[in-house]
Amino acid sequence: MRLGVDASNLARDRRGMGRFVRSVLRAAVAAEDIELELLSTRGGDDAPIAAEFPGVPVRRAEAGARYDVVWCPWNGVRFSTKAPALVTIYDAFAFDEPARGWVARRREQAPIRRAAREAERVATISAWSRERIVAQLGIERERITVVPLAPDDAFFPGPSEALPEALRARRYALLVGAREPRKNARLALEACARAFAPGETLVVVGELNPEDARLAKRLRLSIGAIAASDETLRSLYRSASVVLVPSIAEGFGLVAVEALACGAPVLAANSAALPEAVEGLAPLLDPHDPDVWAEQIRRVFDEPAYAGGLRARGVARFAYADRSGPARATLALLSDLAGGRSKAPSP
The domain that contains 32 carries what CATH number? Predict the structure, then answer.
């Protein structure tokens, strides 16, 4: 099977989507029956991509190129192809929460609308996302296959070797990726302000938006903001007293499963795709009730047996799990398309 993959965001995206795409590419490289080529659509320097995948050709995307199948893994179609295409659309947030400016909105939405028109098959990461894609884009449900994500192999229990010195021996709650309004950082701030005892802190990976930063200041909440490498993020998960995932809308909830895989207690919102992602491994809480979150935060901090039980659930679930499932499922979809069976029903 000659497979072309849109690599336009590969050099830029090393979290979330980028991790998943790399897992598929590594599986394709290892497969004896796949001839892989990476397709560059942005121009510029392709050397970082070539260096990361030595021996894999990196070419400019051309409509006339002969591929058995093409995979577009970045939320849309950005070039023409004569081969059947699988497009991975992770969520419908470009339509549920459109950008304010017309230019930015069109830039986000146009490749997804094109995928709705042209893709032979669409993959997404949760049943919840599938329903939002159907509602927003009118894609037939049978054209959409759900391929749930799994935590990357980088996330597993162990010592917190890269934990910042200021956090050693401290109790902290962890919030990852909080800037977008749908991440619901406001609830986490209010809950932590009500729950924390002196000396306890909220660690934010990334940054708060200006409005939430002002709220944190008014609440006099102790906050540490960190730009974390993979090693630091893994250590933060491992040592966190609790990881908070209060999002109102998540296409899957990768932060939750990464934290669970590292053995962290997780509190997640009972909303969007988070119940699918955590699969009963974490308490699901009302994303609009900070008192409920404050009560659970305090319980995790104060009851070692309760916190230990939450830690054990994630470790047991992911310790021996095969994390290659999403990559294998994606390659199976591509093989199916290459064989001309593009209309097979989704599971």
Answer: 3.40.50.2000
pLDDT band at 215 (very low <50, low <70, confident <90, very high): very high
Q: Which residues contact 22 (CB under 8 A, 6 or more apart)?
A: 10
Write down the pTM of the prediction.
0.92
Q: Are residues 107 and 178 in the same domain?
A: no
Each residue's pLDDT tens digit, 229-265: 889 999 999 999 999 999 999 999 999 999 999 999 9
One domain, residues 172 and 306: yes
List, as one string, the DSSP characters of 84-119: -EEEE----HHHHS--SSHHHHHHHHHHHHHHHHH-
Supply the DSSP symbol for 203: E
Report the distance separating Cα 222 and Cα 57, nearest Å. 49
345 located within any domain: no
How many CB atoms are located within 10 Å of the residue 186 CB? 18
Q: Are 328 and 283 part of one and the same domain?
A: no
CA-to-CA distance for 6 and 331, rounded, in angstroms?
14
Query: What pLDDT score does 128 carry?
Result: 98
77 and 215 together in one domain: no
Distances (CA, A) of 218 to 102, 211, 213: 34, 11, 9
How far apart, in Å, are the Cα atoms of 159 and each of 73, 134, 153, 237, 262?
34, 43, 16, 11, 10
Residue 229 lies in domain: 165-318
Write the CA distances from 214 to 186, 210, 297, integer angstroms. Answer: 10, 6, 22
pLDDT in tens, 64-111: 778 999 999 999 999 988 899 999 999 999 999 998 899 999 999 999
